[in-house]
User: Fold this.
Amino acid sequence: MVISRQAAEHYTWGENCDGWILVPGNDLLVIEERMPANTSEVRHYHATSRQFFYVLSGTLTMELDGSSHSVPARAGIEIPPNSPHQARNDTGSDVMFLVISTPTSRNDRIAAPTL
Assistant:
């Protein structure tokens, strides 16, 4: 089956950010997300989920274990389980990216102290 964000379940999160659930499985979760300019998510970690953020357009800033990484379009960053992280868009335009989680990150989100 061909999957597109036009037919996917949509939700909003954070500071006016969008998510489209492309693959909703328990063993694999794939979401396309959009973060507007100068937005961020809450710093957190996942006890079991391993994630990969792949940037489609724009530049994503990922704070991972206290280090900041600039992730440009057509590049990605892996987030191991139990690793505090925070996705941010520090730029003046939208950033679009895929978040691939295995197993699902649903109900596996634990708040982490801010830096």
Summary: The chain has no helices and twelve strands.
